[in-house]
Amino acid sequence: MARTPKPRTLVGCVGLVLLLTTVAATLSAQDSDRRPGLNSNLLMRLLLPESAFDRLARENASRMVEEGRETFRFDTFGSEAFWGDQLKLHRAIAGANLGGVGPGLSPKAALALGLKVDEEALPVAVATAIQRGQVNLDDPATTLSLLKLDAVVGVKGHFDSAGRLASVGIQCALCHSTVDNAMTAGIGRRQDGWANRDLNVGAIIALAPDLSPLATLLGVSEATVRTVLNSWGPGKFDAELILDGKAMRPDGKPAATVLPPAFGLAGVNNHTWTGAWGNVTYWNAFVANLDMQGKGTFFDPRLNDAAKYPIAAKAGFGNKRDSPDLITPKLAALHFYQLAIPAPTPPAGSFNAAAAARGQTLFSGKAGCATCHVPPLFTEPGWNLHTAQEIGIDDFQSSRSPDNRYRTAPLKGLWTHQKGGFYHDGRFATLLDVVNHYNSFRSLGLSEAEKSDVVEYLKSL
Ligand code: HEC
Ligand code: HEC
Questions:
Q1: Is residue 350 within 8 Å of 317, Cβ to Cβ?
Q2: Ligand 1, atom 26: nearest CA belongs to which residue?
């Protein structure tokens, strides 16, 4: 006999559905400003049971994102052995009054070097005191307090039992995160993946009292190392110096490149400005082992080429095996997290929408940009590399990479890194300079109005 539901049960069912709908709507509303779309399917999930297989993948994805975020923000990979034990950078940060050397690094000086403070790591009382101007930002002791709170983005301080700064290590977030300046310039909420174009990496390393480990590696004097580091300027780093020892370009300018963003990289094949090193996870292993000097395993026989990479070949960077390995177990989630960070959308009103629409037509048509910057990835699906001649520039930086090519830069989120210029070394100060370059080099015949439309389009990406 077919059972007809009792009215009370029916009311109960309708009530439950309504309740679930409300919960789902509330959750997605709460989440929409932070993680758009994450919960939009929640109601469906609640009503239709998910298969065990689907659940496994979804739970794995969210676990990987969380683990990778922790690694990106907080892991030093054991790099304290280099930045602390060897270079003694912590002693310069603390200053002579607090057990180190020299004047120490005040928060004001740290902010001037482009270091950022994570507002969310500050207890309310400290945040309020900073806002009221009651915190002494000229005192290195305040910097040490911020380090104790894990509030200095990208730098981890270790303290001994007497409360003295005993060592420091560095994190990926140092160069590839900024803050939104919500509290004041340099203090705010983290923005992972954004290139920190304020950060003077060279000047920070040059503070270290002992540069002899770098001098020995590079086979030059400590004074030379310091000069090179101080030549880079804000927003730049030279990731290949420790391979080939090339500090200067032929024109005498520093060989450093601008810090690239580390967002919007899903779907992009080759990474870094010169690409042929490998994909995101290759480069993560490279940078954590070689540039950050973490403890791990790294294998790339291309670095044994003593003619191209004399420093790396001599140091054995092509086959590095540390024990314990603090890097390899973290690579999978770190990779996943970076691919999960979307390129941020430009703020409303930051570009002219009508001009950008005309610019889009030019980008894919007359200006010929889309043949290389293929939308919506804005790099080529496949092998996205070009010779220097193809883009009308010199081959100094490309010839430092295994394939002697430049990688077609993915263009999403360009608006976040206008400071410091465009192309690998920031040679074009503005987007109009970039468009002018293509216009003359590729004889595009763009009018001034068309150039400005293309620029508005670039600002809209
Ligand atoms: C000292 C600054 C610095 C630190 C620390 C650093 N990077 Fe980078 N990163 C750079 C620079 C500079 C480049 C460009 C290198 C080049 O093209 O030669 C780069 C390139 C990249 C790229 C390629 C981006 C693209 O557009 O293809 C990724 C991904 C990346 N870094 C991730 C990381 C991760 C993950 C870590 C931590 C393990 C890290 N970086 C640590 C400076 C840094
Ligand atoms: C032949 C392929 C090719 C074409 C065509 C091309 N680009 Fe590029 N583009 C590249 C490469 C390669 C780079 C990276 C240059 C470097 O690393 O110095 C680049 C870099 C850029 C950058 C700098 C990105 C950054 O992060 O600094 C912008 C902006 C840009 N291109 C816009 C355009 C526009 C606009 C057009 C059309 C007028 C265009 N490109 C046409 C290959 C191309």
A1: no
A2: 272
Residue 348 lies in a domain: no
Q: How many CB atoms lie within 10 A of CB 53?
A: 8
What SS3 class is residue 79? coil
Domain end marker among 211, 240, 267: 211
pLDDT, tens digit, for every residue of 282-327?
999 999 999 999 999 999 999 999 999 999 999 999 999 999 999 9
Residues with CB under 6 A from ligand 1: 72, 170, 172, 174-176, 201, 237, 239-240, 257, 259-260, 262, 265, 271-274, 280, 283-284, 287-288, 292, 334, 338
Cβ atoms 178, 191 nearer than 8 A: yes
Contact 356, 453 (CB under 8 A): yes
Ligand nearest to the CA of 457: 2
Q: Which domain holds residue 119?
A: 75-211
How far apart are the CA of 461 and the centre of ligand 1, in A?
A: 22
Q: What is the pLDDT of residues 415-424, one digit of tens each?
A: 999 999 999 9
| Domain total of the chain | 2
Residue of the CA atom closest to atom 5 of ligand 1: 172
* Residue 390, in any domain of the structure: yes
- Answer whether residue 79 is part of any domain: yes
- Full-model pTM: 0.90
